[in-house]
Amino acid sequence: EADIYQTPRYLVIGTGKKITLECSQTMGHDKMYWYQQDPGMELHLIHYSYGVNSTEKGDLSSESTVSRIRTEHFPLTLESARPSHTSQYLCASSESIRLGTLKMTNEQFFGPGTRLTVL
Amino acid sequence: KNQVEQSPQSLIILEGKNCTLQCNYTVSPFSNLRWYKQDTGRGPVSLTIMTFSENTKSNGRYTATLDADTKQSSLHITASQLSDSASYICVVSDRGSTLGRLYFGRGTQLTVWP
Question: In chain B, pLDDT over 90 holds for what percent of residues?
């Protein structure tokens, strides 16, 4: 059972509001990720982090921002939400493992997701 | 361009029947392939993982196969149950990045009717 949590699970807000989606994991994983998923579509990576104070943009351009001040916490913020931001946001984490001299990334564990609706 | 294609897009079967879902990929260099189950409104949960040298992997009523030469994988579900209703996502990881970048298919939406 993966110990990765997201809050809120559902959020309905008006255009122009600032929101923060929370993601926390208790597994001590160094890598964390944010994905965006629309109905019937594949997951798209929008942000990732290798560790504390490390954040990078993913494959899909997003107006959101992220921070990684603590290992277990990876919040995503939208400064001014718009209807085009309506989607499901999934957080995931994974750990790096060493096989001899190789450093590899282990399986990603996903949180339950936040369903965001912007009116 | 690295891609993962799944078929069919959706599938309806009766409880107790078997079904097979398909996945074709072009991801290179290949590292591993996972099948995830995603219930409605939830995050994906891993069912199986296969590396280049593995041809088949089972997890209860789920059996995944991999043909690395043709870059095809299948997920066979035996004696389906109502709880199998979900989206099944094929995910391929490449070997070229330390991030372990994942490439996602759009999923097959399986509905099991009583």
Answer: 73
β partners of residue B86: B110
The encoded tokens of residue B14 equal 């009766």
pLDDT digits (tens, 9 = 90+) for B42-81: 899 999 988 888 899 999 999 999 999 999 999 999 999 9
pLDDT of residue A62: 83
Q: CA of A43, closest CA in chain B: separation in Å?
A: 6
Any residues with CB less than 8 A from the CB of B27 and at least 6 apart, and which? B2, B3, B4, B71, B92, B93, B94, B103
Nearest CA to A77 out of A34, A20, A37, A8 is that of A20
CB of B106 within 8 Å of any CB in chain A? yes
Contacts of B44 in chain A (CB under 8 A): 43, 90, 110
Chain B closest CA to A47's CA: distance in Å?
Answer: 12
